[in-house]
Amino acid sequence: MKTPLSITLKRGLFRTCPCCGQAKMFDGYLKIQDRCRSCSLDFDSIRSDDAPAYFTIAIVGHIILPIVSYVEFAYSPSLKTHLLVWPPIIVGMTLGLLPYLKGMMMAVTWVIKGRKKR
């Protein structure tokens, strides 16, 4: 029986195996394990490559850019204020989202490849 896509994506978001949902996919922050400790799914066969970074940049940019524009036009802060405020927020959002998007992209890759155990 196939796992519904919504459950597979939720498993990826929580960085667990997209096949069984039992074991963690990651050894650390972004390093994936070789295999699932529960169902032996080969995680190397469902690599996400650069997609998580691309989507992270797109999401953070779409959130931050309107806020920065609003603050600039409404309050006109100095360049120094912009340089002190926005970089830490952007870096924090980027580093916060990246592992979760990587898990989701690995789950999507697993679905696209036909949900195979290799």
Describe this structure in words.
By secondary structure, the protein is mainly alpha-helical. It has one domain. Helices cover 58% and strands 0% of the residues. It has helices at residues 5-13, 51-75, 79-112. α1 (5-13) packs across α3. 19% of the residues are buried.
Task: Put the structure in a nutshell.
With 118 residues, the chain is mainly alpha-helical. It has three helices and no strands.
Which characteristics define this entry?
118 residues; mainly alpha
Q: How many runs of DSSP E, i.e. beta strands?
A: 0
User: What helical percentage do the residues reach?
Assistant: 55-70%
Structurally, how many domains make up the residues? 1
Mean pLDDT: 93
Question: How far apart lie the N and C ends?
Answer: 18 Å
Backbone shape? elongated
Please count the helical segments: 3
Give the SSE map.
Elements: H1 5-13, H2 51-75, H3 79-112
